[in-house]
Amino acid sequence: MWKTATETDIAEVAAAIGDPSRAKVLRALADGGALPAGALAAEAGVSLSTISGHLARLREAKLLTVEHDGRRRYYRLASTDVARALEELARIARPLPVRSLSDSVRAHALMRARLCYDHLAGQLGVALLAALVDGGVLDGSGGGYRITPAGLGVLGDFGIDAGEFSRRRPAIRYCVDWGEGRHHLAGALGAAVTRRLFELEWLRKGRARRVVHLTDAGRTGLHRTFGVPLDWDA
Length: 234
Prior knowledge:
Elements: H1 10-18, H2 20-28, E1 35-36, H3 37-44, H4 48-60, E2 64-69, E3 72-77, H5 80-92, H6 101-112, E4 114-116, E5 119-121, H7 122-134, E6 138-139, E7 146-147, H8 149-158, E8 173-176, E9 183-186, H9 187-199, E10 203-205, E11 212-214, H10 216-226
Antiparallel strand pairs: 1-3, 2-3, 4-5, 6-7, 8-9, 10-11
Helix pairs in contact: 2-3, 3-4
GO molecular function: cadmium ion sensor activity; DNA binding; DNA-binding transcription factor activity; lead ion binding
GO biological process, one term: response to lead ion
Domain HTH arsR-type: 2-97
């Protein structure tokens, strides 16, 4: 029997995200990792008893999933679509007030280089995508991006077999970076490149959640491999 298509209930999802404590939970998980309730309570600045209600609400809205490890529960974003939605909301939202030097340092670090779920974002992520297009690894014509025949070879030399990507996830998607207002690379390719950067120790995670740092080897390697300018953050 055919089901009648209806408009989606945006208000329900917006209400789930709209609470400041729940928004902090979602931001804490925006790097694609999983955290227990206690860590999320600390991120949100609420008690354990309070965070349980917030987590239940986010699960009801299908924004979070839960994983069990023995008696412990770990929460993560339900999908890459949730991460993309958060990135888009960040583009139209007002910046949070900077109340301390540590807030300022973290905000600057997030703008430079961060994880957006499982792929690289920020100034470095934007610079990487631009270099992939300029270097002919990706074709950016026609309103989208595709891997070129030459690009398959470049990626293979880098350690990525693009032919092995699952059809269940698009090889290339892009997010409009909330800080730069330009595209950074997402999809299966974005995740694979980011994973490879960590394997090569060209990227390392920062002390603040989501923040990543480009190592000296990474700066040189990205320039030689993909043509990312050495002064990408200038």
